[in-house]
Every structure is written in C-alpha cells, then in structure tokens.
Write a structure and sequence with these properties.
The protein has about 200 residues and is mainly alpha-helical. Helices cover about 60% and strands about 0% of the residues. The longest helix has about 60 residues. The N terminus is likely disordered.
C-alpha cells in the first residue's frame, strides 16, 4: 500500500484519520456504538427486586407483629441470661451482645426504611404527574364543551323554530286574504284571449 490509497484500509474500508503526531492510544472512541460493559468488583443485582425486598422488610418493621416478636425475643434473651445456669449464659448482665444485635438491626432497618420511603415518593410523584395531566385534559375537554355549547346556543338563536314558522305562515295567509279582497278572483270561464 502506498501513500495514494486515499485513506482506505486493506479491504477498501475507510480508515479513521488521525491528526499528525497523534498516537493510537489517543484515538477517539466512536460515539455511535455502545460502550462495552466494564468489569466491576461489586456483585450484580436487580435494583427493582432489591427495592421490592426492602419495601417488604420496611412494611414488616412497621407492624405490631414485629414489635411483639422483638419484645418476646428481648425478654427471653434477658431472662435466659439472668436465670440460666452460669455455664449456659452467653451474654452477662450489661447485655453488650444484645446491645450489639439491636444496634446492627437498627443500622440495617434505617436505610431499608429510607429506601422504601424513596420508592414510595417516586411512585407518589409519578401518580401526581399523571393526575395533573389528567386534570389538564379534563379542563381542556370542559373548555371545549363549553365553547361548543355556546356555539350551539348562538346557532339556535338563528334557527327557525316552530312558533316562528307558524307566525310567518299566518302573516302570509293574512297577506293573501288582503290581496284577494283587493283583487277579487276572476271566474273560471273568463279567458284572456281578448286581452291579446
């Protein structure tokens, strides 16, 4: 291949032109192609499934059943560690392990509750936006119907009603009777041949 290849590769395909002094490592990435997924050290997860899971946990944490079970567990824990024989106790009087377990439960419960609240806020925002659009459509439809009714009322003002037609016909009949009185009817045998 010589310098007269017109910027074409081995198969006649156009090559990307690089400015003078540019190296292959500074070549621009094509923006019309999707990026290759990068490897991540974090595990892959479905955010929607995790969100539903967190909402279920948050709903359970807000129930009386959870409070009853947690109270029974704490009471059993304390009674066991006070009344059980010395060698079977696993958390002595200051109950440091119980405090640690409750702190761990609280540290996981708070973010899960916040995540569930954020998801609910997003749903509420979407519902509010849909309600707003529906209200706008309803207002537009109402305004359109109001204009149509006003146009019909104006049009009805120009429509001949039965009473108006009756009064016009009565006027015509009266006018014909007046003309008949002024111009009496000629007999049927009278011809107008002599008038020619």
């Amino acid at each position: 291949m010589g310098s007269g290849d017109g910027g074409q590769g081995e198969r006649g395909e156009p090559r990307d032109r690089m400015p003078a002094g540019a190296s292959a490592s500074s070549r621009r990435v094509r923006l019309d192609l999707p990026r290759m997924p990068r490897r991540s050290l974090l595990p892959d997860y479905d955010p929607e499934a995790f969100g539903r899971f967190s909402e279920n946990i948050a709903r359970f944490l807000g129930t009386g059943r959870f409070l009853v079970w947690m109270t029974l567990t704490i009471v059993a824990w304390v009674v066991w560690n006070i009344a059980a024989p010395e060698d079977l106790r696993f958390d002595e009087y200051p109950f440091i392990f119980l405090t640690l377990v409750l702190s761990l439960q609280a540290s996981y419960a708070a973010p899960l509750i916040l995540l569930a609240q954020n998801r609910q806020d997003d749903r509420d925002r979407v519902n509010l936006e849909q309600d707003r659009k529906q209200n706008e459509r309803s207002i537009a439809d109402t305004e359109y119907l109001t204009r149509e009714i006003a146009a019909l009322r104006m049009g009805l003002g120009e429509v001949a009603t039965r009473d108006w037609i009756r009064s016009e016909l009565e006027d015509l009949v009266r006018e014909l009777e007046e003309r008949r009185a002024v111009f009496p009817a000629r007999p049927a045998d009278h011809r107008d041949e002599g008038d020619r």
